[in-house]
Each structure stands twice: as C-alpha cells, then as structure tokens.
Amino acid sequence: MDNYDPNNWNDNNNTNQNQNINGNQHPNQNYFNNYYPVPPTKPKDKLATFSLILAIAGCVTSIVYYISLPCTISAIVLAILSRSRIGRFEGKAIAGLCLGISGIVLMLFFFVMMLSILHDPSLINYMQEYMSVYAVEPRA
Predict the structure, then answer these.
(1) What is the pLDDT of residue 21?
(2) pTM surpassing 0.85?
(3) b/e string for 34-54 if b means 16 or more Cβ within 10 A?
(4) How far apart are CA 114 and CA 17, in angstroms?
(5) CB 108 within 8 A of CB 132
(6) Which of 4, 35, 121, 140 to pair with 107, CA 20 to 30 A apart?
C-alpha cells in the first residue's frame, strides 16, 4: 500500500468490485447497471376487474331485478370503457362483458317466468284457498 496512487487506474489494488477472483464478471450483473433489466410489467386494468366483479354480482342476484340490472349494465359499460383505454378486449374485460350480458338474459328469463306464473288463474285461486285455510286469526 506504500505505492498507492489514486490517479493510477491501472493499480492492482483498485480491483473492480463486479469481478470475481478470476477477473470474470459476475453472471447476474450487466455491464451498464450491474443488474439484468427488469421486464416491464403489464399495467393492471382496474376497470376490467370491477366489470368482472359487478357481472358476477349481477348473475348471482339475477332473480332480484332491481339489484341485478344496475350491476350488469355497469359491468357492460366498464368492460367497454376498459377496451377504450387499452385498445382491445382482454381476459377480465371479456369475462365481465359475457357475464354482464348473461346476467341480463338470466334476469329477463326470471322476470318472464315470474310474470307467467303470477298470471296463471289457477295459481291465483290456489293462493286464495291457501290463504283462507291457513289464515291466522289476530289475537285479542
């Protein structure tokens, strides 16, 4: 260390920290930034995620039309907005769109079935008979 010169870059005491004992570069280090570059991550599409969540909620509650209709319509709108942001439909947006449309179809199916059942005159007579037989008298 007696002949150490800070201006002499070829000094044997100034070994590069990125090199191992044999003088080879460490395999996980790059020449420019000492590390391999991190691959870019795909941005998360929150609109597509919310679309999928609302579409699932709309399908589950399809028998309750006043909950299902806003959920499924907003799921379809969010899926379309997600497409306009990214430029194409991706996985969650496609799933949200398909489930939103199927939630509307299920809701309409249940609504039509309910109307057809309630319009049946024999069912109305049966319900009136049932209510008269099992009617509970109010307590005094």
Answers:
(1) 54
(2) no
(3) eeeeeeeeeeebebbebbbbb
(4) 77
(5) no
(6) 121
